[in-house]
Protein backbone atom coordinates (compact mmCIF):
# COMPACT_ATOMS: atom_id res chain seq x y z
CA UNK A 1 0.00 0.00 0.00
CA UNK A 2 1.62 3.29 -1.08
CA UNK A 3 2.19 6.02 1.44
CA UNK A 4 -0.04 9.04 1.02
CA UNK A 5 2.91 11.16 -0.12
CA UNK A 6 3.49 8.91 -3.15
CA UNK A 7 2.66 10.49 -6.55
CA UNK A 8 -1.07 10.78 -7.17
CA UNK A 9 -3.29 11.12 -10.22
CA UNK A 10 -6.46 12.36 -8.50
CA UNK A 11 -8.50 12.80 -5.35
CA UNK A 12 -11.99 11.33 -5.01
CA UNK A 13 -14.89 13.29 -3.50
CA UNK A 14 -18.44 12.03 -2.90
CA UNK A 15 -20.41 15.26 -3.01
CA UNK A 16 -23.13 15.99 -0.43
CA UNK A 17 -26.75 16.14 -1.59
CA UNK A 18 -30.16 16.70 -0.05
CA UNK A 19 -30.64 13.00 0.62
CA UNK A 20 -27.72 12.88 3.07
CA UNK A 21 -27.44 14.00 6.68
CA UNK A 22 -26.09 17.29 5.29
CA UNK A 23 -29.59 18.32 4.14
CA UNK A 24 -29.95 21.10 6.69
CA UNK A 25 -26.36 22.28 6.25
CA UNK A 26 -25.79 22.10 2.49
CA UNK A 27 -25.31 25.85 2.29
CA UNK A 28 -22.50 25.59 4.84
CA UNK A 29 -20.79 22.40 3.72
CA UNK A 30 -20.87 22.98 -0.06
CA UNK A 31 -18.27 25.79 0.16
CA UNK A 32 -15.96 23.47 2.14
CA UNK A 33 -16.12 20.82 -0.59
CA UNK A 34 -15.58 23.50 -3.24
CA UNK A 35 -12.51 24.81 -1.41
CA UNK A 36 -11.09 21.27 -1.22
CA UNK A 37 -11.88 20.70 -4.90
CA UNK A 38 -10.17 23.90 -6.04
CA UNK A 39 -7.11 23.21 -3.91
CA UNK A 40 -6.80 19.72 -5.43
CA UNK A 41 -7.22 20.98 -9.01
CA UNK A 42 -4.15 23.17 -8.57
CA UNK A 43 -2.05 19.99 -8.39
CA UNK A 44 -3.96 16.99 -9.80
CA UNK A 45 -7.28 15.69 -11.12
CA UNK A 46 -10.54 15.30 -9.25
CA UNK A 47 -13.05 12.42 -9.36
CA UNK A 48 -16.49 13.54 -8.21
CA UNK A 49 -19.74 11.64 -7.83
CA UNK A 50 -23.05 13.05 -6.67
CA UNK A 51 -26.56 11.64 -6.53
CA UNK A 52 -28.06 14.95 -7.71
CA UNK A 53 -27.50 15.07 -11.51
CA UNK A 54 -28.20 18.79 -11.93
CA UNK A 55 -25.90 19.70 -9.06
CA UNK A 56 -23.17 17.49 -10.46
CA UNK A 57 -23.46 18.94 -13.98
CA UNK A 58 -23.27 22.52 -12.72
CA UNK A 59 -20.43 21.67 -10.37
CA UNK A 60 -18.28 19.86 -12.95
CA UNK A 61 -18.76 22.62 -15.51
CA UNK A 62 -17.92 25.42 -13.09
CA UNK A 63 -14.86 23.67 -11.62
CA UNK A 64 -13.48 22.70 -15.03
CA UNK A 65 -14.05 26.23 -16.31
CA UNK A 66 -12.30 27.65 -13.23
CA UNK A 67 -9.34 25.30 -13.69
CA UNK A 68 -9.00 26.17 -17.39
CA UNK A 69 -9.14 29.92 -16.74
CA UNK A 70 -6.36 29.58 -14.18
CA UNK A 71 -4.24 27.28 -16.34
CA UNK A 72 -4.29 24.48 -13.77
CA UNK A 73 -3.23 20.87 -14.43
CA UNK A 74 -6.31 19.29 -12.85
CA UNK A 75 -9.54 18.27 -14.56
CA UNK A 76 -12.84 17.07 -13.09
CA UNK A 77 -14.15 13.62 -13.96
CA UNK A 78 -17.74 13.26 -12.78
CA UNK A 79 -20.56 10.74 -12.66
CA UNK A 80 -24.08 10.82 -11.23
CA UNK A 81 -24.18 7.93 -8.77
CA UNK A 82 -26.18 7.22 -5.61
CA UNK A 83 -24.55 7.58 -2.19
CA UNK A 84 -25.73 7.45 1.41
CA UNK A 85 -23.15 9.95 2.61
CA UNK A 86 -19.91 11.73 1.75
CA UNK A 87 -17.06 9.98 3.59
CA UNK A 88 -14.94 8.91 0.61
CA UNK A 89 -11.99 8.00 2.82
CA UNK A 90 -13.95 5.08 4.20
CA UNK A 91 -16.03 3.86 1.27
CA UNK A 92 -13.46 4.69 -1.42
CA UNK A 93 -11.02 2.17 -2.94
CA UNK A 94 -7.64 1.42 -1.37
CA UNK A 95 -4.75 1.19 -3.81
CA UNK A 96 -1.93 -1.34 -3.78
CA UNK A 97 1.08 -1.76 -6.03
CA UNK A 98 2.70 -5.15 -6.60
CA UNK A 99 3.20 -6.45 -10.15
CA UNK A 100 0.90 -3.64 -11.18
CA UNK A 101 -1.54 -1.12 -9.79
CA UNK A 102 -4.83 -2.39 -8.33
CA UNK A 103 -7.72 -0.85 -6.43
CA UNK A 104 -9.19 -2.90 -3.61
CA UNK A 105 -12.91 -2.64 -2.91
CA UNK A 106 -13.26 -3.63 0.73
CA UNK A 107 -16.73 -3.93 2.22
CA UNK A 108 -18.13 -0.84 3.92
CA UNK A 109 -20.81 -1.11 6.63
CA UNK A 110 -20.88 2.48 7.96
CA UNK A 111 -18.50 1.91 10.88
CA UNK A 112 -20.31 -1.13 12.21
CA UNK A 113 -23.90 -0.61 11.02
CA UNK A 114 -24.22 2.80 12.66
CA UNK A 115 -25.93 4.34 9.59
CA UNK A 116 -27.34 3.28 6.18
CA UNK A 117 -24.52 2.09 3.90
CA UNK A 118 -25.83 0.10 0.92
CA UNK A 119 -25.27 2.84 -1.70
CA UNK A 120 -21.81 3.71 -0.38
CA UNK A 121 -20.76 0.06 -0.41
CA UNK A 122 -21.70 -0.18 -4.11
CA UNK A 123 -20.08 3.10 -5.15
CA UNK A 124 -16.58 1.88 -6.06
CA UNK A 125 -17.92 -0.70 -8.50
CA UNK A 126 -20.21 1.92 -10.04
CA UNK A 127 -17.32 4.38 -10.42
CA UNK A 128 -15.22 1.67 -12.04
CA UNK A 129 -17.99 0.74 -14.47
CA UNK A 130 -18.43 4.42 -15.34
CA UNK A 131 -14.76 4.52 -16.37
CA UNK A 132 -13.61 6.96 -13.73
CA UNK A 133 -10.79 4.67 -12.60
CA UNK A 134 -9.48 4.25 -16.13
CA UNK A 135 -8.25 0.74 -16.81
CA UNK A 136 -7.15 0.10 -13.25
CA UNK A 137 -8.59 -3.23 -12.08
CA UNK A 138 -10.94 -3.16 -9.09
CA UNK A 139 -10.86 -6.23 -6.84
CA UNK A 140 -13.64 -6.95 -4.35
CA UNK A 141 -12.43 -8.00 -0.88
CA UNK A 142 -14.91 -9.69 1.46
CA UNK A 143 -13.69 -7.91 4.57
CA UNK A 144 -14.86 -4.68 6.21
CA UNK A 145 -12.08 -2.07 6.15
CA UNK A 146 -12.20 1.72 6.04
CA UNK A 147 -9.40 3.81 4.60
CA UNK A 148 -9.37 6.08 7.64
CA UNK A 149 -8.59 3.13 9.89
CA UNK A 150 -5.12 2.43 8.44
CA UNK A 151 -1.93 4.38 7.79
CA UNK A 152 0.83 3.08 5.52
CA UNK A 153 4.48 4.11 5.50
CA UNK A 154 4.81 2.80 1.93
CA UNK A 155 7.42 0.28 3.06
CA UNK A 156 5.29 -2.48 4.54
CA UNK A 157 4.27 -1.03 7.91
CA UNK A 158 0.62 -0.38 8.73
CA UNK A 159 -0.41 1.76 11.71
CA UNK A 160 -3.91 1.22 13.12
CA UNK A 161 -6.02 1.09 16.29
CA UNK A 162 -7.36 -1.97 18.06
CA UNK A 163 -10.53 -0.07 19.02
CA UNK A 164 -11.51 0.08 15.35
CA UNK A 165 -10.14 -3.03 13.65
CA UNK A 166 -11.10 -5.34 16.50
CA UNK A 167 -14.61 -3.92 16.74
CA UNK A 168 -17.06 -6.88 16.72
CA UNK A 169 -19.48 -4.91 14.53
CA UNK A 170 -17.09 -5.04 11.58
CA UNK A 171 -15.49 -8.47 11.27
CA UNK A 172 -16.71 -10.44 14.29
CA UNK A 173 -15.14 -13.75 13.22
CA UNK A 174 -11.58 -12.36 13.01
CA UNK A 175 -9.09 -12.01 15.86
CA UNK A 176 -5.97 -9.83 15.83
CA UNK A 177 -3.75 -12.45 14.18
CA UNK A 178 -6.31 -13.15 11.47
CA UNK A 179 -6.73 -9.45 10.77
CA UNK A 180 -2.97 -9.06 10.46
CA UNK A 181 -3.10 -11.93 7.96
CA UNK A 182 -5.73 -10.07 5.90
CA UNK A 183 -3.64 -6.90 5.94
CA UNK A 184 -0.60 -8.90 4.86
CA UNK A 185 -2.40 -10.68 2.04
CA UNK A 186 -4.26 -7.64 0.70
CA UNK A 187 -2.05 -4.63 1.51
CA UNK A 188 1.36 -6.29 1.66
CA UNK A 189 1.73 -5.44 5.35
CA UNK A 190 4.96 -6.85 6.76
CA UNK A 191 4.29 -5.28 10.18
CA UNK A 192 1.21 -3.93 11.93
CA UNK A 193 1.59 -1.37 14.71
CA UNK A 194 -1.48 -1.39 16.96
CA UNK A 195 -2.43 1.57 19.13
CA UNK A 196 -4.55 0.39 22.06
CA UNK A 197 -5.25 3.91 23.32
CA UNK A 198 -6.57 7.05 21.69
CA UNK A 199 -9.90 8.79 21.76
CA UNK A 200 -11.68 11.72 20.14
CA UNK A 201 -15.02 12.92 21.46
CA UNK A 202 -17.75 13.01 18.81
CA UNK A 203 -16.01 10.44 16.62
CA UNK A 204 -18.32 7.82 15.07
CA UNK A 205 -15.50 5.64 13.72
CA UNK A 206 -14.24 3.89 16.87
CA UNK A 207 -10.91 5.76 16.87
CA UNK A 208 -9.82 5.91 13.27
CA UNK A 209 -6.08 6.35 13.05
CA UNK A 210 -6.37 9.34 10.71
CA UNK A 211 -7.84 11.40 13.55
CA UNK A 212 -5.02 10.48 15.95
CA UNK A 213 -1.63 9.68 14.39
CA UNK A 214 -0.21 9.91 10.87
CA UNK A 215 2.96 8.89 9.06
CA UNK A 216 4.74 11.90 7.56
CA UNK A 217 7.80 9.84 6.55
CA UNK A 218 8.71 6.16 6.97
CA UNK A 219 10.48 6.97 10.26
CA UNK A 220 8.35 9.91 11.43
CA UNK A 221 4.86 10.01 12.99
CA UNK A 222 2.88 13.09 13.98
CA UNK A 223 0.08 12.74 16.50
CA UNK A 224 -2.45 14.66 18.57
CA UNK A 225 -1.43 15.53 22.11
CA UNK A 226 -3.56 17.02 24.87
CA UNK A 227 -1.67 18.84 27.64
CA UNK A 228 -4.74 19.91 29.59
CA UNK A 229 -5.20 17.50 32.51
CA UNK A 230 -8.79 18.66 32.95
CA UNK A 231 -9.71 17.72 29.38
CA UNK A 232 -11.58 14.43 28.89
CA UNK A 233 -8.99 13.39 26.27
CA UNK A 234 -5.92 13.79 28.48
CA UNK A 235 -5.61 10.24 29.86
CA UNK A 236 -6.26 8.38 26.60
CA UNK A 237 -4.02 10.60 24.47
CA UNK A 238 -1.20 10.54 27.03
CA UNK A 239 -1.37 6.73 27.02
CA UNK A 240 -1.32 6.81 23.22
CA UNK A 241 1.77 9.02 23.26
CA UNK A 242 3.51 6.50 25.53
CA UNK A 243 2.68 3.71 23.06
CA UNK A 244 4.07 5.71 20.14
CA UNK A 245 7.32 6.21 22.05
CA UNK A 246 7.64 2.44 22.39
CA UNK A 247 7.18 1.73 18.66
CA UNK A 248 10.24 0.98 16.55
CA UNK A 249 10.89 1.21 12.84
CA UNK A 250 11.50 -1.96 10.84
CA UNK A 251 15.24 -1.59 11.48
CA UNK A 252 14.77 -1.14 15.23
CA UNK A 253 15.05 2.62 15.70
CA UNK A 254 12.60 4.80 17.66
CA UNK A 255 10.31 6.87 15.50
CA UNK A 256 10.75 10.61 15.26
CA UNK A 257 7.58 11.96 16.88
CA UNK A 258 5.99 15.37 16.40
CA UNK A 259 3.04 16.48 18.52
CA UNK A 260 0.31 18.45 16.78
CA UNK A 261 -1.42 21.34 18.54
CA UNK A 262 -4.60 20.58 20.47
CA UNK A 263 -7.45 22.72 19.09
CA UNK A 264 -9.74 24.62 21.39
CA UNK A 265 -12.90 22.59 22.01
CA UNK A 266 -15.66 22.97 19.40
CA UNK A 267 -19.29 22.23 20.19
CA UNK A 268 -22.40 21.35 18.20
CA UNK A 269 -25.84 22.90 18.28
CA UNK A 270 -26.90 20.74 21.23
CA UNK A 271 -23.73 21.31 23.24
CA UNK A 272 -21.98 18.09 22.20
CA UNK A 273 -18.23 18.16 21.67
CA UNK A 274 -17.18 17.86 18.02
CA UNK A 275 -14.14 15.88 16.76
CA UNK A 276 -11.81 18.71 15.77
CA UNK A 277 -8.32 17.38 15.00
CA UNK A 278 -5.37 18.66 13.00
CA UNK A 279 -4.27 15.09 12.24
CA UNK A 280 -6.99 14.84 9.58
CA UNK A 281 -4.90 16.52 6.87
CA UNK A 282 -4.56 15.30 3.26
CA UNK A 283 -1.21 14.99 1.47
CA UNK A 284 -1.43 15.62 -2.29
CA UNK A 285 1.10 16.33 -5.04
CA UNK A 286 2.96 19.46 -3.96
CA UNK A 287 0.68 20.39 -1.07
CA UNK A 288 -0.90 19.45 2.24
CA UNK A 289 -4.53 20.40 2.84
CA UNK A 290 -4.95 21.16 6.54
CA UNK A 291 -8.32 21.37 8.29
CA UNK A 292 -8.71 24.41 10.52
CA UNK A 293 -11.63 25.33 12.74
CA UNK A 294 -11.52 29.06 13.48
CA UNK A 295 -9.83 28.52 16.84
CA UNK A 296 -6.53 29.81 18.30
CA UNK A 297 -4.59 26.63 17.50
CA UNK A 298 -5.04 27.02 13.72
CA UNK A 299 -1.96 29.19 13.12
CA UNK A 300 0.29 26.93 15.17
CA UNK A 301 -1.02 23.89 13.29
CA UNK A 302 -0.13 25.55 9.98
CA UNK A 303 3.36 26.28 11.25
CA UNK A 304 3.93 22.71 12.46
CA UNK A 305 2.64 21.18 9.23
CA UNK A 306 4.89 23.46 7.18
CA UNK A 307 7.88 22.25 9.19
CA UNK A 308 6.82 18.64 8.61
CA UNK A 309 6.40 19.21 4.87
CA UNK A 310 8.92 21.93 3.92
CA UNK A 311 8.71 21.09 0.20
CA UNK A 312 4.90 21.27 0.01
CA UNK A 313 2.51 24.17 0.26
CA UNK A 314 0.27 24.00 3.32
CA UNK A 315 -3.26 25.09 2.41
CA UNK A 316 -5.59 25.74 5.34
CA UNK A 317 -9.27 24.97 4.73
CA UNK A 318 -12.02 25.91 7.18
CA UNK A 319 -13.58 22.56 8.10
CA UNK A 320 -15.72 23.71 10.99
CA UNK A 321 -18.89 22.75 9.05
CA UNK A 322 -17.57 19.21 8.47
CA UNK A 323 -17.10 18.34 12.13
CA UNK A 324 -20.82 18.89 12.72
CA UNK A 325 -21.24 15.51 11.00
CA UNK A 326 -18.32 14.07 13.01
CA UNK A 327 -15.55 14.02 10.40
CA UNK A 328 -13.05 16.37 8.80
CA UNK A 329 -10.97 16.93 5.67
CA UNK A 330 -9.15 13.62 5.31
CA UNK A 331 -12.41 11.80 5.99
CA UNK A 332 -14.15 13.24 2.89
CA UNK A 333 -11.27 12.55 0.48
CA UNK A 334 -9.51 9.53 -1.00
CA UNK A 335 -6.34 9.87 -3.03
CA UNK A 336 -5.85 7.78 -6.18
CA UNK A 337 -2.24 6.95 -7.10
CA UNK A 338 -0.44 7.95 -10.25
CA UNK A 339 -1.70 5.93 -13.19
CA UNK A 340 -5.32 5.51 -12.12
CA UNK A 341 -6.97 8.59 -13.65
CA UNK A 342 -6.05 9.53 -17.23
CA UNK A 343 -8.46 12.21 -18.61
Write the layout of secondary structure elements.
Blueprint (H helix, E strand, L loop, with lengths): L7 E7 L11 H16 L3 E6 L2 H17 L6 E5 L7 H4 L2 E4 L3 E7 L2 H4 L4 H12 L8 E7 L6 E2 L4 E5 H4 L10 H12 L3 E5 L17 E5 L2 E5 L9 H13 L9 E5 L21 E3 L2 E6 L4 H12 L4 E6 L15 E4 L6
Parallel strand pairs: 1-2, 2-3, 5-6, 8-9, 11-12, 14-15
Antiparallel strand pairs: 1-16, 4-5, 7-8, 10-11, 13-14
Give a structural overview:
There is one protein chain. With 343 residues, this protein is α/β, with parallel strands linked by helices. The protein has one domain (8-337): 5-stranded Propeller (L-arginine/glycine Amidinotransferase, Chain A). 27% of the residues lie in helices and 24% in strands. The chain has helices spanning 26-41, 53-69, 88-91, 110-113, 118-129, 162-165, 176-187, 234-246, 297-308; strands spanning 8-14, 45-50, 76-80, 94-97, 101-107, 138-144, 151-152, 157-161, 191-195, 213-217, 220-224, 256-260, 282-284, 287-292, 313-318, 334-337. β7 and β8 form a beta hairpin. The protein starts with 7 loop residues before the first strand and ends in a 6-residue tail after the last strand. The model has no long low-confidence stretch (mean pLDDT 97).
Amino acid sequence: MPAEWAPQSAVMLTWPHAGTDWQDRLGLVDPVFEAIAKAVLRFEHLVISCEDPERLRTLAESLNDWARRHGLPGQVLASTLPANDTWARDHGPIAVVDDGLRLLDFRFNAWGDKFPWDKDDALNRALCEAGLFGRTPLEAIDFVLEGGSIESDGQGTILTTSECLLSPSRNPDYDRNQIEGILRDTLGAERVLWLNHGYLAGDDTDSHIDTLARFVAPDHICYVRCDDESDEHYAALTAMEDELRQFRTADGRPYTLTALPWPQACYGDEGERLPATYANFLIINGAVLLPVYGVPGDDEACRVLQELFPDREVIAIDCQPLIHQHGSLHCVTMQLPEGVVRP
